[in-house]
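Quick check before the chapter quiz. The format below is the same one you will see on the exam, so make sure you can read both the input and the output lines.
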Amino acid sequence: MPNINKLLSKVNQASQAIKSAKGIKAQISSAGYKGGVNTEEVDKLQEQSEENRRKLEERRGNLQKQLSSKNVAKKGARTPPAGFIDMQYPIEADFDNFLVFETRPRKERKGGNLLSEKRLSIALPLPQGGWSQDAEAKWGENEGIGAFARGALGGKNVGGMIEETLNAVKGFISDKMGSMGGGIGNLRAGQAKNPMKEQAFEGVEFRDHSFEWEFYPRSPEEALMCQKIINGFKIALLPDTFASYEGADLEWGESEHSPSENFFNFPNIFDVYIEGPIAKQMERFLPMVCTGVSVDEMVNDEYIIAMNDDMQWSGSKKMSVSFVEIKLMTQESYASRVAPEILPQSEYGDMTNTTGSASLMDGEEVATFTVKEKKPPTPKT
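Here is the expected output.
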C-alpha cells in the first residue's frame, strides 16, 4: 500500500501548482498587458483549475482521515510473539503487512552458544520489488525405451514379445548397415533411426528465496534497530563449533571438553510468514535456512545520523538475505503448507496424509496412517 504521507505530499504540491496557475491572469491584468492574450482561454483554464483544486481538496481530506485513523490504530497494530526478541523496522510505520522471520532454537552445546535458548522475531515491510514463488519439476530424456522394452511392456503374450525382439534385432542390423560409409545407406533407403526417447520424471529441487530492503532510519534509535536486524540474521546464519570429546582428561586437566572444537553445530532454522490483511491471500513458505546476508554500507555517504558529537550512524543501508527451504515441495506439502489459506484444496480430491516424506530437520515424524478401502457399490436389485 502506498505511504499516505507521500500521497499527501503529492496532493499538496499539485494544489500549490493550481494556486500558482490561478494567479497568472491577475498578474497579466495588473501589468496592463492585454495584446496577444486570449482572455477567454485564460478564463476556461481558470475554471478547470478551480474544479481540479476542489477535487484535490476532497482527496486531501480523505487521505488525512485515513492517516489519522491509521495513527490511532498503529499503537496496537503488531503484537510480537511471546518469548521472542522482537525487532521491527521501521519502528513506527503505517504499514499494514509485514514479512516476519522467526528462528527456531539450535541445539545447545557445552560451552554455550547463541540463539539456542533465545529466539528472534524480525518484522520487515514487504519488499518493494516483491519476491518469486516458484514450483518446478525436473524431467529428463530416457533413451532406454527401445523396441524390445516396449514389447515387454505392451506385449500381451510371449508371441508378441518375440515379434518385438525380432523387430529390434532386425532394426539394429539395418541401422548398422545403413550407417556404414557415413550414413549413405540410410540416406539411399530414405530412413533414419527413431531414438524412441521418452521424458522421465527425475524429481524436484529445494526452493530458494531472496529478499532485499533499503534502510533509511529517521533516528538514532531506528539506526540501531537496523544494525540489530543485520546482526541477528548473521548470528542465525553462522554455525557455532563444539568438540567431539567431552569429559575431564589428564592431558587437558579438568576441562569439561576438548580444546579442539572439531564439529560445526547446525545454524538456526527460520519460519517465515506474512503478517497482515494480505496474509491468507498469499502463498506461504516452508521452513528454511539462511544461506547469505549481504549488506551495502553507506549507500548515501552524505546521509549521516548524529546521536551526539561523539557518535554517528549511517543513514542508509541496503540488505539482501537469501534462504533455501529444508523440505521438498510436493503435492502434499504445497496443498497443506504453501498454497494460500483462502483457497480450499478439498475441491481437487481427498488426501489422508498431508505430510508427505517426513523431514528430519523439520522435526517431523514419519506419518502413520491408514487408507480406507473403498468398497464396490451395492448392485441395485
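If your answer matched, good. The longest helix spans residues 39-74.
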